[in-house]
Amino acid sequence: MAVLPVVDMHACMPLLPRQTLATRWHFQALAHNRLVTRYCGHCERHQFPPLDWCPGCGARDSRWRELAGTGTLYASTRMHAVADAFRPFAPVTVGVVDLVEGVRVLAWLLSPELVPDAPVQLVSLRFDDGNLLGARLLEETT
Ligand SMILES: [Zn+2]
Question: How many distinct structural domains can be found in the chain?
Fold first, then answer.
């Protein structure tokens, strides 16, 4: 099982993520620095964000699977004008990452200089009150 590298943020989260019954296990795994999502055995696809049903075929018996946490950067944007809660972190760069398992995730980009197609590693951003997904250049170490 892959454990995501941890990056301590030394702050509270700017916004608490909205958790549902369908995403609860994802956030509980992320609190332990693991990345999980739902996998549908009928159409053999991962789905993200996790849902109670498969958007590909409508099946309702998908299972949780752990993901490697690596992929390539699809796109990113750097925000200088941010909501009040994000001001201590500005400018904030977020990236859309295509994971090797075929799902696309949004992550706080710790390597703002990255360009599309760069290899990235997801990390667990450890805030004082929970964890969020981050991403950085794959070759970087903690
Ligand atoms: Zn399916």
Answer: 1
